[in-house]
Amino acid sequence: MSIDSRTSTQPARADTKGSQLPQVAEPRNPGMALDLDWVMSAQANTSAIERRTATLPGRRSVKKAYQAAWLLKAITLIDLTTLSGDDTPGRVRRLCAKGLQPVRADLLEAMGMAAITTGAICVYHDMVETAVAALSGSGVPVAAVSTGFPAGLSPFHLRVAEIGESVKAGAAEIDIVISRRHVLTGNWTALYDEMRAFRAACGDAHVKAILATGELGSLRNVARASLVCMMAGADFIKTSTGKESVNATLPVSLVMIRALRDYHDRTGYRIGYKPAGGISRAKDALTYLALVKDELGNRWLQPDLFRFGASSLLGDIERQLEHHVTGRYSAGYRHPAG
After folding, report:
1. What CATH number belongs to 35-334?
2. Could you tell me if 266 and 301 are in contact, meaning their C-beta atoms sit under 8 angstroms apart?
3. Pairing relation of β-strands 236-238 and 2-3?
C-alpha cells in the first residue's frame, strides 16, 4: 500500500434531515493469516501525506445548515469518554445521561431534529457496570479500555483476563492497546499473535485496537501496524489512548484510512476507524469527517464504522449548534459534560 496525495473530487456534503442513513449490517472481520509480503510492501510518502492533509480544512468547509447537519452527525459518532483517576459512579452516571441527551431539547426542536445519542460511553473497567446500568434499554453501548491501558505493559495473562472481566461486566466494545515494542522492533508475528489473543478474549464484544501512533516512530510503521491488527481480527483501528504526547493527527489518519481501504479492497471486510486524543473543537471534527467521506465514502460515516474518542468535543459542538440557532455564542459552562 503506497500512500500518496490522491484525493476525491467529490465535495463534502451532509444529510440535513438527520444523522442516520439506511445501512446494512456489516459482516464481522474474521481476520486472516498473517501476510508479511503485504505488510512489508506498505509504505508512506510523508511529504505527500502532509501536503494532502494540510490543504484539507480549507477545501472541505461547510457552512450554515450544512455545518449544523455535519455537527449533529459528529455527535452520533462520539465515544463520550471519562478516563480519570478520580472517576466516581456519580460522574459516570452523569456522563451517561449526557450521552443519552447530548443536545438540549430546545436546540433540537429549533432545528427540526428528533432526539439523538452519542455513539458509546467509554470508561475504565471499574465503571463498566455503572455505565451499563445507566444506559440500560437505550441501545447505547459501553466501551471499556483494557489490556493495561494506556501503556499496555502489565503481564500478558492479566491483560487477557482484564478483557474477559469487562465483557462479563457488560462491555459491548473493548479498546485494547498494542505492545508498541513489537512495532518498533518489526516483530509483526508477535503483534499478530497478541492481537489474535485479544480478539479471542473479546468474544462477541467488538475490539478496537489502539495503535498509540505517536509512539510508533514513523508513518510507515503506522501503516504496517494497521494492516497487522486488521489481519488479526480487529473490528476497529484507533489512533491513540489520549495519554501520549502526540495523539490523533490528520497525516496519521490518512495513513490508517488508506490501510482500511486497502484491506476492504482485498478482503471485502470493512473495518472501523477511531481517531482519539486532542480532538476538542467542532471544526476539527468536521475536517475528520470530510477526510473519511473523501477517502472511504458515506458508508463509513456511521457509528459501526467511525467513532471519535473525545471528552470535551461535545461541549464545543453544542456551542456551535446554539450559535446556529440563536446567532449568539454561549459560555462553555452552559453545556456541561455531565
Report:
1. 3.20.20.70
2. no
3. unpaired
The four Cα atoms 179, 182, 184, 187 give a dihedral, to 10 degrees, of -170
3-class state of residue 286 by DSSP: helix
Count of alpha carbons within 13 Å of 199, Cβ hemisphere only? 22
178 contact partners, CB below 8 Å, separation of at least 6: 152, 191, 194, 195, 209, 210, 211, 212, 225, 229
* Measured distance CA(267)–CA(32) in Å, rounded: 9
* Beta carbons of 79 and 274 less than 8 angstroms apart: yes
Q: Whole-angstrom Cα distance, residue 131 to residue 140? A: 10
Residue 22 CA to residue 266 CA, distance in Å, equals 25
Closest residue by Cα to residue 69 from 286, 298, 310, 299:
286
Strands (E), the chain: 2-3, 43-44, 78-81, 120-123, 142-145, 173-177, 206-210, 236-238, 272-274, 308-310
CA of residue 301 relative to chain centroid, distance: 11
pLDDT in tens, the chain (338 residues): 433 333 333 333 333 333 344 456 889 999 999 999 999 999 999 999 999 999 998 887 788 999 999 999 999 999 999 999 999 999 999 999 999 999 999 999 999 999 999 999 999 999 999 999 999 999 999 999 999 999 999 999 999 999 999 999 999 999 999 999 999 999 999 999 999 999 999 999 999 999 999 999 999 999 999 999 999 999 999 999 999 999 999 999 999 999 999 999 999 999 999 999 999 999 999 999 999 999 999 999 999 999 999 989 999 999 999 999 999 888 777 777 76
CA-nearest of 280, 242, 286, 234 to 260 is 234
Looking at this protein, which amino acid is placed at residue 204? D
Orientation of helix 188-202 relative to helix 156-169, angle to 10°: 30
Active site (catalytic) residues: 175, 238, 274
Neighbours of 76 (CB within 10 A): 19
Query: CA dist 24 to 21, 270, 297, 299, 302, Å?
Result: 10, 12, 15, 9, 11
